[in-house]
Automatic annotation (TrEMBL):
<dbReference type="InterPro" id="IPR034016">
    <property type="entry name" value="M1_APN-typ"/>
</dbReference>
<feature type="domain" description="Peptidase M1 membrane alanine aminopeptidase">
    <location>
        <begin position="240"/>
        <end position="331"/>
    </location>
</feature>
<dbReference type="InterPro" id="IPR001930">
    <property type="entry name" value="Peptidase_M1"/>
</dbReference>
<keyword id="KW-0482">Metalloprotease</keyword>
<dbReference type="InterPro" id="IPR014782">
    <property type="entry name" value="Peptidase_M1_dom"/>
</dbReference>
<dbReference type="InterPro" id="IPR050344">
    <property type="entry name" value="Peptidase_M1_aminopeptidases"/>
</dbReference>
<protein>
    <recommendedName>
        <fullName>Aminopeptidase</fullName>
    </recommendedName>
</protein>
<keyword id="KW-0378">Hydrolase</keyword>
<feature type="domain" description="Aminopeptidase N-like N-terminal">
    <location>
        <begin position="20"/>
        <end position="202"/>
    </location>
</feature>
<keyword id="KW-0645">Protease</keyword>
<comment type="similarity">
    <text>Belongs to the peptidase M1 family.</text>
</comment>
<dbReference type="InterPro" id="IPR045357">
    <property type="entry name" value="Aminopeptidase_N-like_N"/>
</dbReference>
<dbReference type="InterPro" id="IPR042097">
    <property type="entry name" value="Aminopeptidase_N-like_N_sf"/>
</dbReference>
<dbReference type="Pfam" id="PF01433">
    <property type="entry name" value="Peptidase_M1"/>
</dbReference>
<keyword id="KW-0862">Zinc</keyword>
<keyword id="KW-0031">Aminopeptidase</keyword>
<dbReference type="Pfam" id="PF17900">
    <property type="entry name" value="Peptidase_M1_N"/>
</dbReference>
Length: 331
């Protein structure tokens, strides 16, 4: 878990007159121009009639926002961004009635180099060519850089994520791939299974040229596929981590009395990563040295560090992910 936790006692929280229950999110990254397009459909509950919806955003350009209630659609007549509070207010001409609705937002974002939100990580391939991968880091309050959301740990929802990427790249997210569809000859869309109910800071995805090593649990009622993803040429260095992962999952499932609830557990080494690791549910991200171990050249003490870090992040799959603090000062 990262340590950049907001501690300001005058915390900024969103009003509770509108709350989310499910996000359907489509992201189309451009790794050459360092931008991405986004479209999100948020199933919301309007608890009292309102003409405004307040939501977290940061460094996003909103193209439009509209609310669908039954057969009627109402587009926001204005949007206003508060840079200090990192919120956007959508205002509607007519009052939105109490009840369920779908909030649609089309927007654009920056694939930044700040190691926060949806960002780019640069590296050199085996031939010395400069390459870029895209990866997320949302804890504590950076999901709002990637999609408009209720970016608070207690505002849990489920997520259905789609990533539109060039055919030569691999896309990963919290859940397994449900299907892959072709958008055009050089682009395809990864559709991921619906997540359990979870906080926005645990949502994750990655896009790049990856390879992996794999293992599977053997002692759980529902086997869990475990993979370690690396850049090309490094997958052998992920073997130690992928070998110990099933044992750790089985151990925690036993002592906590609750099985790991997802069907897969991916871990990925990221060249540019601000923290040691981050416990995104089902897609744990690591600084390269915190996950990979070269049996031929690495000192044995680094093996122990990898084991300790992996065990720490996997423990968070239960406390942190399955059970989450209401706010950051409860950490």
């Amino acid at each position: 878990m990262c340590n950049k936790i907001p501690t300001n006692p005058d915390r900024v929280v969103l009003p509770t007159n509108v709350t989310p229950s499910h996000y359907t999110l489509t992201i189309t990254p451009d790794l050459k121009e360092y931008t991405f397009g986004g479209y999100v459909e948020i199933n919301i509950d309007i608890h009292e009639p309102t003409k405004t919806i307040l939501i977290n955003t940061k460094e996003l350009t909103i193209n439009y926002g509209r609310v669908e209630i039954g057969e009627t659609t109402q587009e926001a007549s204005s949007t206003s961004f508060d840079e200090h509070r990192e919120t956007t207010t959508f205002t509607f001409d007519n009052e939105l009635p109490k009840g369920p609705a779908v909030f649609n937002i089309h927007y654009q974002g920056i694939l930044n180099d700040k190691m926060a939100g949806f960002y780019r990580s640069s590296y050199k391939d085996a031939e010395g060519n400069s390459k870029v991968m895209g990866v997320t880091q949302f804890e504590a309050t950076e999901a709002r850089r990637a999609f408009p959301c209720w970016d608070e740990p207690a505002a849990k929802a489920t997520f259905s994520i789609k990533l539109c990427v060039p055919t030569e790249l691999v896309a990963l997210s919290n859940m397994p791939v449900e299907q892959i569809t072709a958008v055009e000859p050089e682009e395809m869309t990864y559709h991921f299974e619906k997540t359990p109910i979870m906080s926005t800071y645990l949502v994750a995805w990655a896009v790049g040229d990856f390879e992996y090593v794999e293992s599977t649990t053997t002692k759980l009622e529902n086997p869990v596929t475990c993979r370690v993803y690396t850049l090309p040429g490094l997958k052998e260095q992920g073997q130690f981590a992928v070998d110990i992962t099933p044992k750790i999952l089985e151990y925690f499932s036993e002592i906590f009395g609750t099985a790991y609830p997802l069907p897969k557990l991916d871990q990925i080494a990221v060249p540019d990563f601000d923290m040691g690791a981050m416990e995104n549910w089902g897609l744990v991200t690591y600084r390269t040295v915190a996950l990979l171990f070269d049996e031929k050249t690495s000192d044995l003490r680094f093996k122990e560090q990898v084991a300790s870090t992996v065990a720490h992040e996997l423990a968070h799959q239960w406390f942190g992910n399955l059970v989450t603090m209401e706010w950051w000062d409860h950490l």
